[in-house]
């Protein structure tokens, strides 16, 4: 029997084996998952059923994923959309960012990775607040790092040879950086970071799978030399800390 409270997920992919396997796996994980074979079918389904998240192949023969995103947002402006692509290009990444995709995953992605992206998208949606609800302490500053958590923008003064380094962060990256900045000099385990910053109450092993990719991307954005980071340090076997 279907759970009426289960979050609804729409899987859109022109490959029958991919969409059916993913929809079935998500159903087993407790979601109410449906599948569409094309962008047009997905748009028709959206007209008759509200969905919380759409997992969308960016390359389809009848209508590409970016166009599906544009049209679907006219029906459900707050629909969370996760893009999947087997042909990663700079253009497709830029299109995903400009279309405000909740996440952008490469094929083949495991069910675990897709389910984690769905959980993040749902968590971020529940945590979103209108602009007037942004906390009074909008700007956080620790050493050379300044974070505008209203706009999810970070700047690092004196980064490398440049005067400063600036970057746009995702909601999850911003939340992780806030947590590290509020506990500067303190080692936080992946489990602590996953729970405090991302809202996941999971074991340390699952937390590592969730947190590590975000830390990696965060380092690429704020570290002058991400291979040899000096802002976000790693304490083997224990976790991460901000040490500006």
Give the structural class: alpha/beta
Radius of gyration: 19 Å
Whole-number average pLDDT? 83
Instruction: Give the biggest beta sheet.
Output: 5 strands, parallel
Give the topology.
Elements: E1 8-12, H1 16-28, E2 32-36, H2 39-48, E3 53-57, H3 65-75, E4 80-85, H4 90-98, E5 103-106, H5 111-127, E6 139-142, E7 145-148, E8 153-157, E9 164-168, H6 171-182, H7 190-198, H8 204-222, E10 232-235, E11 239-242
Parallel strand pairs: 1-2, 1-3, 3-4, 4-5
Antiparallel strand pairs: 6-7, 7-8, 8-9, 10-11
Describe this structure in words.
With 244 residues, the chain is of the alpha/beta class. The chain folds into 2 domains: 8-127, Rossmann fold (3-Layer(aba) Sandwich); 133-242, Winged helix-like DNA-binding domain superfamily/Winged helix DNA-binding domain (Arc Repressor Mutant, subunit A), CATH 1.10.10. Helix content is 41%, strand content 21%. Strands 2-1-3-4-5 form a 5-stranded parallel beta sheet. The protein has a 4-stranded antiparallel beta sheet with strand order 6-7-8-9, covered by helices on one side. Helix 6 (171-182) packs across helix 7 (190-198), helix 6 crosses helix 8 and helix 7 (190-198) crosses helix 8. The relative contact order is 0.09.
Quick overview of this protein structure:
41% of the residues lie in helices and 21% in strands. It contains eight helices and eleven strands.
Notable traits:
244 residues, alpha/beta, Rossmann fold, Arc Repressor Mutant, subunit A, 2 domains, 5-stranded parallel β-sheet, 4-stranded antiparallel β-sheet
